[in-house]
Hints:
Helix content is 43%, strand content 19%. By secondary structure, the chain is an alpha/beta fold. A three-stranded parallel β-sheet has the order 2-1-3. A two-stranded antiparallel sheet has the order 4-5.
Amino acid sequence: MAATLDLLCAGAAQGLVTSLQARFLAETGAGLGGRFGAVGAMKEALEAGEACDVMVVTDTMVNALIAAGALRAGSNAPLGRVRLVQAGEDPQLMQELHHPDYSATVERAFVITIEGYDWNCPQHITPRFTEAEVTAAVAPLHERIRTLEAELAVLRQKG
C-alpha cells in the first residue's frame, strides 16, 4: 500500500493541490489525502487530532497555531501569495477565466503566486539519521542474516 501525505488545507488552495496530485504521486509514490475547507475548520480539525502531515492555511493562522503550541515553530514555509482580483481590476484575466460552456460572469478571482515547493526540501526536512548511523544500526541484522544462511546451508546438506 502506497503512503499517503495527509493534508489539512484551506479551500482556496484546493485547485492548486489537486492539480499537483498526479505529479506528486509520480515523483514520490505517495498519494495525497486529508481534506479541504475553511481555515477555521482546518484549525479545529488539527486541534481535534485529525491526521495531518502538512497544513496549508493562512500565515496568520500558522502563527496563531505556533503561538498556541499546536504547530512546531520553524516548521512552516511560505508556499506563495494569494490575492483577490476583482473584475474591474483586470478585465483581461476575467475574460481568460470565462468558460464558454458556462453562462456565469466571472466577477472575481483568487490569483495564487507560487513562490516555491519541493517534495523533499532539505532546508525544512532534516534527515533523521546519517548514512553511517543507518549502516551501524543494520550491521547486526546483516550479521544475523549471514548466520542464519550458514545454518540453513548446513541443514540443507544434512537433507
